[in-house]
Amino acid sequence: MKCYIGIDLGSTTTKAVVMDGKGEVLGRGITNSRSNYDTASAVAKQEALIDARLTLVRRALAEEAALAGAAEGVLEGLERNFRLEQFLEQLEDLERTCLANAEHDRHEDLRKAMAEALEEIFGRLRADAEHLYAPGAERKSDFFRDIAGSRYMQRAEEVAREAGLPFDPLLNVYDKSIIEVENRPPAGDIGGKFLRALGRVLAEGGVHADHEAVRAAVERALAVELEEGYVVGTGYGRVRLPFSKEHIRSEILCHGLGAHLMYPGTRTVLDIGGQDTKGIQVDENGIVVNFQMNDRCAAGCGRYLGYIADEMNLGLHELGPLAMQAKKTIRINSTCTVFAGAELRDRLALGERREDILAGLHRAIILRAMSILSRAGGVQNEFTFTGGVAKNEAAVRELRKLVKENYGDVKININPDSIYTGALGAAEFARRAVEA
Amino acid sequence: MSSDTTRIDGKPEVVKEPSMLKQKEMIARNYEALTSAPETGRKVVSTFVPGNLNELVMCFDMLNNLPEINAIQNGLRKKSGAMIMDAEKRGHSEDVCTYVKADIGMMGKGNIAPNGKPLPPPDLLLLSYTGCFTFMKWFELLRHEYKCPTVMLHIPYQGDGRITPEMVKYVVKQLREEVIPAMEKVSGVKFDIDRLREYLRESAKAEDNLVWVLESAKNRPSPIDAYFGGVYYIGPIFTAFRGTKDATEYYEMLRGEIEERLRKGQHPITPEGEMEEERYRLVVEGPPNWTNFREFWKIFYEEGAVVVASTYTKVGGVYDLGFRHDPDKPLESLAEYCLGCYTNRNLPQRVDMLVQYIEEYQADGLLINSIKSCNSFSAGQLMMMREVEKRTGKPAAFIETDLVDPRYFSYANVKNRLESYFQMIDQKRRAAGAAA
Ligand code: SF4
């Protein structure tokens, strides 16, 4: 099957979307954008392809009435165990890398002890893994670095204590190795991992359907060749993507088209990203007819919220919920990251509540976005809000208020998959480059 | 045709046409004349580019010094940043026109001309006001510094879009009663109207050729870039050379070169050699950015974008709309010249001009480079943009930079917007192709 891939290399996360020839989304993938853009796009792409496989499995299971009831369980188990396989594979890589690094750094006397300690640590980590990915287990993050990191610290401390070794060298070796592992392009053999995962699912015993029929359906889905028809890259880091110029589209066009695919009736798109805010107008075909964006400074963009969170010693995700508890909105005039800090401290010193100040900050951001929107020609009718800030309920509340005040009752769309808007547009550009 | 080859910072060889060398030599000679005025005893007039009275100045054997041009020179040579900071230290606000601050900063640093010698203090400040009130305050500052005679030639603004006979009479009256007597007094030379006629005859010849050159952009491919290249073409006629034999020769030479390019079907010359392909034809409104001129230009020629017409090349006269200096009515024609300058035109006239250019030059769209520190140009530009879009159906884009303040130029931001704009034109074209 020919498929088309869009990759959106953002400043903090990299997203990929895989689409089939008819324009249907098969899969989505996301990873953190690291220093190595090539790896970030390879990882995001692989994640989207894995998701696409799961879609194909879902379709294959749906084709047989007898398996319909088991589909959700199979899919859940398959994904979970696939993640386990992936985790074990990367864990193995990490172990090899740690051993090699320990070999390099250490003096004769510590070398052997370090190797033994590492073997012990990784043995325990492998045993932990099964629990981590057991049915119903919760994981705080899906990124290898997050999961492996915290477990490693814990296990290394135990082992160091038991073996009477210093903890620091074990920590150093990990720090050095995790970066190498993370920046290595992901290994292939997705099919093999899925088959091993399937074996685990069936062995877990939770699937109450004809095992042979399930296996046949999954194998059928795995046999479909996902041929890369065309790839288009976009986003902040697009110039660094390993593509030629024809494979690169500006994020403004991709966001416009992506929003149009999600909501064909939309004419105005607002995207508040980490680095910039864009007001985009599209026509009935999703073609961008006008756009405006913030000038050279990132005032009022996602980064602004990041600064505020740091300033208040809060996590980024805590800002919105806190602002929702406001009793009044303190007026904050500055959307400049430099001045806002001062204004904030000033308000706190005056005894204002954090919640009320935060409400004011959210309003300031949206006011700034409204001015960019009006430069782009205002809100025409159906309106779509995308970008990271669209997940912040306090920002959304302000936006709804201000849109209503300025433009009356317009339909406002916020898609749960809005983080993929740019990648979706890019995938559609890829599809059109070949199919149109 | 002979041509000289120069290497600029080890980059590919740049071919300099004979006309470029001639212009360079003319400018050097003029700065030499200015800086040696204390020895030669010649008198110096400081005045402005739009609506300047070069032919009249020459009638009194005086030299013409243009602070705006000095600021541009310093911007191009990356010296304006420090000068602006200096002016700010002396109490000039960040938001004021950066030409003014570059000039004030230059004074503070000893008024050194590009030839390394100090410019003499002016003997007369000739404020021919056209369309910009900042001029008045600028010369007020200079008068405070130099305490020399100052004459103001007040030019009525074309508020309702036309020049009336009363306006011409009003300006001529001032020329007769204020400007000419002041010049006679400062220079000690008696005014001779026949001498003025002679210069004006020379001006008109050069103007004919300039118009021919600018209109050569109506061809496909265009042999010139009428913005980045255009600023070089207008140099002599906007400054201290209009009315001289030198200027006439320069424009004859230039026309010959462009005729040759046309015959050969050649593309415009860029700092890195000839442009390879014409992919986009644009009309540009607003002055260029001088501090990052090369970088800015590069974003265009790398994408195959050629500017076929610009309004900036009309700030010193709208010759292509029919105006010529006329030896048969010398003072009246000087008055009409001042009244007709681009900055002295009202917004509907500016919109008409842009619409006309887009149509006559078969452009793909309009780009506005909005200058942060120049309210005179920038007020109303968004409104103009919408109006042009509406009347031509062609897409427009908006970027923001500054004249000579390097702090106001964000390469990444400008490039992002321009790339998006070019892709937007592509997308529109494809859609139009698909519909047809
Ligand atoms: S027209 Fe603009 S750039 Fe020129 S002097 Fe006036 S304010 Fe400055």
TrEMBL record, chain A:
Coiled coil: none annotated. Gene3D superfamilies: 3.30.420.40. Its cofactor is [4Fe-4S] cluster. The keyword Glycosyltransferase does not apply. Residues 5-430 form the ATPase BadF/BadG/BcrA/BcrD type domain. GO terms for molecular function: iron-sulfur cluster binding; metal ion binding. Keywords: Iron, Iron-sulfur, Metal-binding. It comes from the Bacteria. PANTHER family: BIFUNCTIONAL PROTEIN [INCLUDES 2-HYDROXYACYL-COA DEHYDRATASE (N-TER) AND ITS ACTIVATOR DOMAIN (C_TERM), BIFUNCTIONAL PROTEIN [INCLUDES 2-HYDROXYACYL-COA DEHYDRATASE (N-TER) AND ITS ACTIVATOR DOMAIN (C_TERM)-RELATED. This is Benzoyl-CoA reductase subunit A.
UniProtKB/TrEMBL annotation, chain B:
The keyword Iron applies. GO terms for molecular function: iron-sulfur cluster binding; metal ion binding. Gene3D superfamilies: 3.40.50.11890, 3.40.50.11900. Keywords: Iron, Iron-sulfur, Metal-binding. Coiled coil: none annotated. It holds the Pfam family HGD-D. NCBIfam families: benz_CoA_red_B (TIGR02260). Belongs to the FldB/FldC dehydratase alpha/beta subunit family. This is Benzoyl-CoA reductase subunit B.
